[in-house]
Design brief:
Layout: H1 22-30, H2 50-56, H3 65-74, H4 84-96, H5 104-111, E1 115-120, H6 140-152, E2 155-158, H7 163-170, E3 176-179, E4 184-186, E5 189-191, E6 197-199, E7 202-203, H8 210-224, E8 231-234, E9 239-242, H9 251-262, E10 268-273, E11 276-281, H10 287-297, E12 306-312, H11 318-327, E13 331-335, E14 346-348, H12 351-374
Parallel strand pairs: 1-2, 1-12, 2-3, 12-13, 13-14
Antiparallel strand pairs: 3-4, 4-7, 5-6, 8-9, 9-11, 10-11
Helix pairs in contact: 1-10, 3-9, 6-12, 8-9, 10-11
Keywords: Hydrolase, Stress response
Pathway: Glycan biosynthesis; trehalose biosynthesis
Function: Removes the phosphate from trehalose 6-phosphate to produce free trehalose. Trehalose accumulation in plant may improve abiotic stress tolerance.
Length: about 375
């Protein structure tokens, strides 16, 4: 097992060790049960329960392919039409999940006296959703903002993408990266006395599944090549089948192709994101567990003075939102222009609003530091 030897960032205060044994953290994380209460749904809004969605996506339960396709449509908010009914529903939803920008002062008040720790999804949060997942580039302004953020608060990128690919997009060595839905975690690189880079944090709880993932990847590439627009992405410890560029008339065909491969692999499970089917090992690990693991490695396992903030736009981010709601610490922010069933407390509409929110956090922190220096 890998031990954590990362020093706690200076702005987090002294007196707490960060060294954590990965095995004990893994056991701690796996035994956590999520029993968070969701906020009530707004009137007229029909939520799609995650449990029902996953039941629809069961690989070996003999479910109808149509259920898969229905779930694929449910993940595509662009199907929602602008109608008076939607306007009413969205207004009600916004009351339940107000804008994090409009509620910024209240958020800051709740965080006073506590250490803010930032967790950020990548696609749809720091970068716009694009047709070609290989071109989901972060803007220079966003990168500059995230760099400043990391100087003020411990910051982690938590993505379904391969960790190396996310790093190539973000290009900031001072961050924590949790790729493959948290199954591949790496901490900031530190310089040793010999001036060589060292990896102080590295944790991969699904390493044994690598051969299987590679095998399934090759099969899916071969099986889906007859479906125009389908793209299979190897995220190292999980796979993504993108159907954003697939004609909706071909979704049933694509679902049948994916199922024909996965039915031979009971140790893999299927979940759904925005215009993407996610294939992951059946271990009890997700973005929520990754969040807890990172808090533990930073020395915040049982602290009451920590304030985690998680910003994400996808169904897989709900695992982290639920963990925060269950802990009663910090909050989640959902990035979405449309009403969704969520455990997040606040909302932002798009990456530009995320950048504005992060900038305000940085400005607030800088002003606080200056005010304290004058005392």
């Amino acid at each position: 097992m890998v031990s954590f030897l990362e020093d706690r960032p200076k702005n987090m205060g002294a007196g707490q060790n960060v060294i954590s044994d990965a095995k004990s953290v893994l056991n701690m994380s796996i035994t956590v049960t999520v029993s968070a209460q969701k906020p009530p749904a707004p009137p007229g809004y029909i939520p799609i329960s995650r449990k029902k969605l996953l039941q629809n996506l069961e690989i070996n339960a003999g479910g109808r392919i149509n259920a898969w396709v229905d779930s694929m449509r449910a993940s595509s908010p662009t199907h929602i039409k602008s109608t008076p009914s939607l306007t009413d529903d969205q207004s009600s939803w916004n009351l339940q999940h107000p804008s994090a920008l409009e509620m910024f002062e209240q958020i800051i008040d709740a965080s006073k006296g506590k250490q803010i720790v930032m967790f950020l999804d990548y696609d749809g949060t720091l970068s716009p959703i694009v047709e070609d997942p290989d071109r989901a580039f972060m803007s220079k302004k966003m990168r500059k903002t995230v760099r400043k953020l990391a100087k003020c608060f411990p910051t982690a990128i938590v993505s379904g993408r391969c960790r190396d690919k996310v790093y190539k997009f973000v290009k900031l060595a001072e961050l924590y990266y949790a790729g493959s839905h948290g199954m591949d975690i790496k901490g900031p690189e530190k310089r040793s006395k010999s001036n060589k880079d060292t990896e102080s944090v590295l944790f991969q709880p699904a390493s044994e599944f690598l051969p299987m993932i590679d095998e399934v990847y090759k099969q899916l590439v071969e099986t889906t090549k007859s479906t125009p627009g389908a793209k299979v992405e190897n995220n190292k410890f999980c796979l993504s089948v993108h159907f954003r560029c697939v004609d909706e008339k071909k979704w049933t065909e694509l679902a049948q192709q994916v199922r024909s491969v996965l039915k031979e692999y009971p140790k893999l499970r299927l979940t759904q994101g925005r215009k993407v089917l996610e294939i992951r090992p059946t271990i009890k690990w997700d973005k929520g567990k990754a969040l807890e693991f990172l808090l533990e490695s930073l020395g915040f396992a049982n602290c009451t003075d920590v304030f985690p903030v998680y910003i994400g736009d996808d169904r897989t981010d709900e695992d982290a939102f639920k963990i925060l709601r269950d802990r009663g610490q910090g909050f989640g922010i959902l990035v979405s222009k449309f009403p969704k069933d969520t455990s997040a407390s606040y909302s932002l509409q798009e990456p530009d609003e995320v950048m504005d929110f992060l900038r305000r956090l940085v400005e607030w922190k800088q002003l606080s530091v200056r005010a304290q220096s004058r005392m």
